[in-house]
Amino acid sequence: MQGWVTLALLLSLGVNRSLGQNGLGELPVPRGLTLNPDLPAQTLSLTWQSDSSLFDLEIFHTEFMNVVLNETVAVKADPVTGLHSWTWHSPLPLECTSHSVHIRARNQQSLSQWSPLQTIPGSDIPEKSESYMFPQDKMVPVGSNMSFCCIVKEKRDFREIQYRGQQKSATRLSRRTYAITVTNQPASGNTGTNVVCCSETLTLTGAVVFVGYLPGDEGLVCETRDLASAECSWKKGRDTHLRMKRGRTKYTLNGRDCLEGKTWCYSKVWEENWTLVARNPLGMVQLTDSAQLADRVHLLAPANVTAVEVKAWSATLQWSWSVAAYKKLEMVCQLQIFPHELSSTRNYSGPGLSSVVLEGLWPDVDYTVTLRCGSKQSFWKWGDESAPYRIHTKMDRPDALDVWIWMDSSKTGRVFWKPLSVRKSHGALDRYEVSQSSADEDWGTPDFLPPGNFSYPIILNNSSDITVAVAARNPAGLSQLSTVTTPAYRADSRLSVSELLSTNGSFDLSWQPNANASGGYVVEWVPTGCSGLCPVDWRKVPESDSSFTVKSDSLVAGVRYTVSVYTLSPGAPMLLQRWQGYSQEMIPSQSVSELSANQTGSDVLLSWKATEMKHQRGFIHGYTVYLADAARLDLIANISDPEVQSYRVKGLSLSSHKFVVKAYTSAGEDAGSTVAIKMEMDTADMLFVGILVPLGIMFCCLILLSICCYKKREWVKKAFYPEIPGPKVPGDWSSPQGPLDVKPSPHSLVHIVESPEWDFTKEGLFPVPEEEEESENDNIEVDTDSDEPALLRYYNQVVGDGSHSNHVLDSSGSSTASVGSTQTEITYAGIQSPTSLQGGYRPQMQSVTGPAELQNEFEADFQDDGLNTGYKPQCSWQLDSPEAENFSGSLGSPTSVTSSQFLIPESSEEKPQPSNTWFHNFLSGKS
Amino acid sequence: MEGAADSDTPVAQRSATDRAAALARLLHRDCTRLLELYKERENFLSHHVPDGERLVALGLCPEALTTAEQVGHVRSALRRCKELLECLITREVEEMGEELEGEYESLRKTVKDRLGHLVHSTAALLENGEGGCPPSPPLQCTEGQDEVDDSFAAKLWTYRVLLELIHWTDSASQTLHLFQSETQGQQQQQLL
Questions:
Q1: Mutation site for B-interface testing, chosen from A191, A199, A200 by largest number of B Cβ within 10 Å
Q2: Is A169 helix (H, G, I), strand (E, B) or coil?
Q3: What's this model's pTM, rounded to 2 decimal places?
Q4: Could you give all domains of chain B from N- to C-terminal order, each with its CATH number?
Q5: How far apart are CA A374 and CA A354, in angstroms?
Q6: A598 and A641 in contact (C-beta within 8 Å)?
Q7: Which of A190, A207, A245 sits opposite B100 (nearest CB)?
Q8: Are B48 and A137 inside 8 Å of each other by CB?
Q9: Inter-chain residue contact B44 with A203, CB threshold 8 Å
């Protein structure tokens, strides 16, 4: 308020000063300033009276006296009323706050005084204490700028203004008024854009603004359906985003309102020029169309479509029109006929067309027809389509059958006929009727076959040909008879059947035209070797043609076909030419059979049998023979002649071999058959190698041994049979009367021992010349006989313990222990021949030394093993053995023969045997 | 109801009370969901605290002393809520057209239908049909709409109507539950 008073004072001072400066005379102050606000339009109209035509205008926000407009305008007076008027568009809603206006006149030299302030009150005056927001429910175009103001309720604080949920910077206009300005507004949602004014604690007030687009409709087209009225339609453009009631687009067609929310408009009369105005609060769009009625005829759908007469091959269709004016209209109608395989589109024309005859239908077929019509002259578009109408044509008798006869032997054959398609059966078949005649027999009673049968067996009882007639019957009647006469049977073996090569799976056939083929030709193909109910197929070829292609879709890959061409004449068909071939060769499905391998010396003869024809699946071009090992197959032969079904593999070693034989066609080899064989020697070889060779080797060895022995006979004699000196008998040792007890002389052993160096000095040893030598010899023999020196040594150590000392004493065979003893019990250590110790030796027990001493001697002997080099065993082959040498040292001691291995029975003493023959040792396994 | 002599009646009564209570619970959930959907559409309402009087006030009803009377009061309030909802639907359809067929619009119709069923169900539970509340004149949609002359005010009014629905369906649920318990107790006493 203070600012407002100050400004008023300044203005009055200014006026006074200007008046003071105007010495020429003052301009009169404009009179009767009145303000007329248009609140929705946010405009303020000013009217006043004045003689001037140039004015200064100032508009304030009254409360804060903020100048919102200061402008000089030239406004002429209305000649009628004499009033000056000027309109100001406020960026803010005028309700936001109070506005004050004053005006003064001006010319080039002078100014008038300001008129008194005129004020329009806003909604923020104290009399209106509630909260308000302006503007409310305004509709603006997308992208526009806009200001909102919030008038806060008395005694409430202000926090913010939100636009689309976002806080905006607010400007204070008065004590209670705050304003925001939003730029480039986006399109609103379904219920508009919310602008909310909030205090610190709650929502004070708010407004909704609807931001959208102008109508965008386009494409106005008018046409007539009844040859009198008009229906205009258009396409809706982009969404205006103004869904609320006030924002919806409204349409007028040539000034007449259209139904709301529709995109078409109806007019009772045809007008050649049409104008559609689409309008919403943001603006309008105008669409135009211009046409003659005859050029815009869009017929309605034919009504009551019915088939008044339905036959097997045609039907008459009739319909009506709901518009009487159509009856004189030259129109064209289009029938669309389904199903798909029989579908077609047919056009009919005529004035007021209401029936047509549908030709070219097929018997016993369900048809569905739809119909639509249009104006023939100045055709605009097809009219609406009628509802689908179903027609079922009547049946007719079937077409004649395609019949052929196939002979699988000279006496038997089978008549085949092809199933009739829907187009040829003309109705569901009831049966087939087959009858036959021959030269001897006329047509007999026909055989009836159900519709699923397509062949009939025939048997020739005599040599005359048979003619077979086949016909199909349906409810409408019997087809024409199809006849065929049995051709002469020709086996493949009796013909020169050539090999037929396929081209892309098809057989391209050509033959020499035959003058007798008055009825054309029949090309027949059947799997080779088939018998019984075979898949026989055939085609009839006109007489004029001499070539034919058997398509791949009627052939099976890997099957051999016999293709025959017959000439058709009034008589029986005559075979003209025959081929065999595969539409596509494949590798054999089975390998060769009965593969065998037979050995002949070092050779193997492989033989096999060819695969059955049905498994060949191609012409066999030959065989490959492989030698198989664990990892691979080695090709050893490629037999290109398929008739050759054996192969000899030569020069094989004596071991196992595996062979694989594969047959091959142009498509490749089969999996192969495998045979294995183990090569063995024959009987003569086995006899030679197994018996004669060892015998020969043995014989040679004997000869060599004999020669050797002969050469070294002196040494052998010396070594094995030394000369035994004869006994020297000092007295009369003439032979007694009794039997002579011949015992080997102990001296013979004495002579063999050349260097008896072992210790005679040992304690407890008493030299006893004869027995001692004998004992020594025995000990040496023990040494030589011992196979287990280690065991012996160990045992001697063990028996040296006190617990066995008595045993040692008792059983010792040593000379020291046996001195003075009458016991003859001897215990051996190690494995010894019991006979080797019996050479007249008689152990002498001697108890000169105690057990302890004996033990000491034992240990001393073992410790002195390495020193007993002076001991020389008598057997020369033991001298090379260090172990034997060691043993000899120990065994040479008087206690070394102590043994508990086994006892020699007493009886053995009574039957002494030679103990030192090499042959005996040899046989007993001693070295 | 109370004092019914027919032996079959208590069972049927209990069953009807059960159904009404269950329907009230279901309706309360529907109304809560409806308000959620409305808040999703008009997101400024998330922080809005409505001021002013309740839209549905039962000033003319005498003080409810018994549970049965409370049921009658609740039924009167529900009937008023139904009228308010119908006005709301009429207004929204008029403003926005019938093209919008979202979840909000679908649930809005469901609530209206179930509210009608609940009003009918509660009436069947009462002997005199009104439970002590005088019949109120049907609401005119133009009543009290003077201040709802702009879209923003209409949105606030819609918000208040939905809050009333939640309040009174919750109240109906609790009252019917109490009524159901009391009815069961009386029947058991009669059986003893």
A1: A191
A2: coil
A3: 0.58
A4: 24-191 (1.20.1250)
A5: 13
A6: no
A7: A190
A8: no
A9: yes
